């Protein structure tokens, strides 16, 4: 009798295991298919939500001016953001295009001769001799140099075209994210209510508090990191364009990337200063130097002004997030990675501050709430 009962229980256990495995497998297949469907929209929707959280206070102020028309306020902010994004892009792309056209014309014009290298070039450690020989060949025989280094030139042009295409795709992604952000801001009450419900459901009684912390972190990072990087690149870029520095657009974009990654803009500015003093008169070169140095150091006082109070995020967290995000998601990952990693850091610190007694009482409260909802 005992053996039959044990055999019966074993059969039920195996049936339950098979049924559970089938259910889990089907659920896993459904999740994989769902992720494949929504994968192209994950980054723009996530970035749109982050932008919406950051711009919501400004939307509320604009709503008062617009006499309560929040949809119009959100749409207007999105259009302003798109204009701010597109106008510098047109200027930078125009500068890059002019530089490429000028370089192409220079290479195709057989009468143009490049100045030869000085002997000091050969003294540069590691690369001096190769650089001297390549430069001398381009200066003396352009046609032969193009034939000899044709593969390297093609590879460089391909890499440049790929980076340019990636940049354009990122701009399109930003525009889509801004439009999504406008929708989130227009329906902010219902979205905020849903987020709080999900947070409480997942985290417990601290869910609503953590949702507020996430919003504060997003605003802090976007203003203190992305905002400062944008202001700094505009200040330095304006100097590049005013003094007609070659490749001003590329230099401005490189400064923006470095600032997002929390690296000093002076890494790019200092070589440009040396170049300016090599061909400009002393007075304009000095004005340019003071301008870009002040702009390069401006983050030291802009970050304390724009970083949210009460939210202190170590710079290594921002740096790792920005670089890791760029590796995984391209240029837009610079912004997204910094924000996401900062959110996780703040949530981890907040979780560490919760005492074990609070965790236990929180679990007991959750269990009591479940019993009240399901008395049977």
Automatic annotation (TrEMBL):
The keyword Chloroplast does not apply. Keywords: Cell membrane, Membrane, Transmembrane, Transmembrane helix, Transport. It is a multi-pass membrane protein. The chain crosses the membrane at residues 12-35, 41-60, 72-97, 159-187, 221-243, 249-277, 284-302, 317-345. Residues 357-370 have a biased composition (Basic and acidic residues). One of its GO terms (cellular component) is plasma membrane. The keyword Transmembrane helix applies. It is found in: Cell membrane. Residues 357-376 are annotated as: Disordered. Belongs to the autoinducer-2 exporter (AI-2E) (TC 2.A.86) family. This is AI-2E family transporter.
